Amino acid sequence: MNFWLPTAFAFLALIPLIILLHMLRPRRIRVVVPSLLPWTAQAAEARNRPGFGWLRQWLSLILSILIFLLLLLALAQPDFAGWFRPRSTVIIMDLRARMQATDGNGSRAFDRARDLARSYASRARSTHSVALMTVPPTAALVPFTTEARPLMEALDRLEPTDASGNLSQALALAESVLGSRRGNGETILITDRIPPDALPENAVVYAVGAAAGNSAITAMDARRSATGTTQVFLLARNFSDVPTPVEIGLRLDGRLVDAASATLESGGERNFSFVLTDSDLRQANRGELTARIEKPVDALPSDNSAHAVVAAGPVPKVLLVTRGNPSLEKALAADTTLKLELLGPESWQAGFLNAFPAVIFDDWLPADLQPGTDFPGNALYLGKSPWDVPGATIENPVVTDQTTENPILQNVQLAGVRIRQAVQLELPKESGWRTLAESADDPLVVSWQNPGDPTKRAILLTFRPENSDLPGRVAFPLLISNAVHWLIDDALPQPQTAGESEFLQAGFHATPTGQIAVNPAAEAESDVRSATSGIHGDAVLQTPHTLFANLWQVLVILALALILTDWAAYHRRWIPNSGR
Amino acid sequence: LDWNAYGRLDRLYTRLFHDEEDMHVCILLDVSESMRVPLGTLPQKLRQARRLAAVIAHASLAGQHQLSIGMFSEGLDSFSEPVRGRASFHRALELLDRIPKPGRGTSFAAAIPGAAAASPRRSLVVVISDFLDPAGTDLPLRALLHRRCDVVLVQITDPLNMAGLPLGNLTLVDAETGAEFSFDANPRALTEQMENAERRMESLRQWAIRQGVPLARIESGATDPDALQALLRAGILVQ
Q: Which of A79, A103, A242, B171 has a beta carbon 3.0–4.6 Å from A28's, enabling a disulfide?
C-alpha cells in the first residue's frame, strides 16, 4: 500500500504529547458522603456494566490515540490502487448542434448532459480513471485521469457546437482506447437520444433530450450578378408535425434589408430569394449578411440563422493605362462592379500603382518598373511586362494547354484563339508563378501570387489582345473581368458549414484570406423530434465503489465515530477518571 | 362496676381510676459515620440529633419518667443506667456529650436487640437516626414492637436539594463502607438523586404509618423552632 502523503506520519511524534495531555487532565473531585445508599440504583447499574478491567481505566487515552492515528492515516491518504482491479471510464459528451435544443422549461439538453457528466467525473479516483471525449470534434478533450478537477474544469468550459458529428466513430474510438487499458472499462455516451446503431458491449447511453418541433434555415447562398445586384437564396424546412408559419428577416451588417413570411408544411421545405441592390451593398461595410427566422422562436434557435458574406463598400476602381484600346475599354466598362479610370502613358505617376487596387498596363510599361517581385500594387500586363526577354518573340503561337480550375480562366475558353505574336518570358526563380495557358513550353497567360502576402498579385498576357482574335470572342470580357476581380481579390467566399471547416460555431469568422461565413449543420441536426430521455445499455461500473476509493473519508468518519464513542463512554461513566 | 354503690342505690355505677404509670423512656441515638460525616458543606446530622435527644430527655425527666440513653452504630456502643427526675438532666447531657468510640457502619439488626434487652418491657423507645442501614431497619424495629414497646422514630435528613455537593465530576466515597462511586453532579443527575432519596424516605414513612409508629423527619440544618414543631406535630413530646 502506498501513501500520497507519507510525510504525514511525522506527526506520530505527537503521541507522547497526547499521553501527557491525558495525564494532565483534571481528575475527579473526591467527596466523602454519609452513605451511598441514595445512589444505590446507579451504583448497582455501574457495577453491572461489562467491565474491561484495566481497559476501563485507559479507555479514554486509547480512544484518543486511535482517533489521532485514524486522522493521521486519512491525512496520509493511503492508495489502494494496487489492491483493487482498476477501472476506466470514457465519457463522451455530445456537442452536436442538436444538444442546444431546449425543453419546455428552457433547459438545454447540453446542460442536463453536463450535469450528468459531472456526476461521473466526480468518480475519478486512484482506482478509477476517467477520460473525457467530445463529438464534434471527435477527440479526447481530457486524457485518462484519476483526479476529478481537470475533468470538472474541462466540463465547465464546454459549450455545444453548431456542427454535426459521428457518434459511432466516437464510440469506436473510445472502445479502442479502453481496449488498451487493463481492468474494467466502460463508455458513457451522453446525448439527446438513443443511437440507432448497435452499441459496444460496455457502452451506456444516457439520453437527456426532449422531443420538440423545430424550423430551420438549411441552406443559404448569395451570388453577385453582372448587373451589380446580389441575389440571396434560402431554403427553410419545417421539422415538426404541424404546419408552421415563419417570418424571415434578412439583415446586412445588422440592418434589416428585407423580410418574407410563409407557412412551412409539416416536414416540408420552401425556397426564399431576396435581391440586394447596389445601394444596399454600398451602404454596408463588412458585408455580413444574416437571414433569421424571426418567428416562431422554437426549441433549437441556433439553426434559425444562416450567414453569408457579400461584397460591400464602394465600387473598386481600376486604372487602365493605354494609348487607346476600345475593345478593352468596352470590356471593362461592361462590368458594373468596377469603376474604370483611363490614363495615358504620358500622365503616369509612380504613386498610381499603390493608389488603385488594380492597374492594367496595355502594351506599355513605366520606365522605372524593374523586373522583380517586390514591386508595389497589383497589375495586369498586356503584351509587355518587366519579365519579357528583349527581342525574343513567338510567332503564331497556338494555345496547347490551359487550366480551367483557376478563377482567372473560369468560363474562359482559349483553345482556338489565333495569336499573331507573343513575347517570351524569363520568370524569376521565386515561387508563386503559375502558368495558366501556354503554347508548347512558352507561357501565354501567367499569374503570380506572393506566397508571403497573398494580396500581392500580377497577371501577364504575353500577347496583345489586338494581335489576336481574342477581342472578338466571348472569352475576352470574361478573361478581363476575371483577371481584374482576381487582382482586387473581391471574390466572395462561399458560406461553410460548421464542422466541415475548422470552425465549429456558426457566424462570421476572420481568416487570413478574409471574412468567411459559417452556417450551422442544420440539415443533419435540426430534426429534434426523435430526441428522448432514458438509459440504454448495461455497464459494469454504473455503481461507483466509494468505500475504499475514498478511504480518507472513511477514516475520518471512523475517527468521528470514535469521538462519539469516547463522548458516550464518558457520559455513561465507562471511563472512571475521564474528567474534562 | 361499683358494687357497693349498686348495693346501696340499686343502680349501676362505673368507677374510673387514673393510674400514674412509671414509664421508661429509652433514647437510641445513631452515632455511626453517616451521622457524623456531613454531606459536603451541610451541617453534621449528629449535632441536630443530640439537640433533639436533649429536648426529649428533658421532657421525659420533667414528666418523672425513667430515662436511658443508648448509642449505636455497628452495634450497641453504650447504654446508660436509668435516671429519673429533673435533677438528672445534667447527667443526661453528660451522656449525650460522651460519645463512645463508635463503629463506622450502621446496623439496626445488631444494635436494637441489645437495647431492647436492656430496656424494660413496654418502654417508650425513641430512635434518632438517619436510618441509612444497608441491611434495612424493618425487622429490628418490628422486634421492638413485639416487645410491646412504644416506638417513636426521629429521622435526621440532609436537605433534599443536595446543595452541599459541588457540581462536576465527583468520586463519591461512602463514609461508612469506603465504597467509591463516580458521579457526574449535573442538575439532571442531582434531580434524579433527590428523587431516589425521596423514595427512600417515603418508604420509611409508609412503614411507620402501617405500624402506627410516630415519625418525625427533621433536616440536619433545621432551626430549633422548626425541629420542636416537627416533634410536636408527630406527637412525640406528648407521649
A: B171
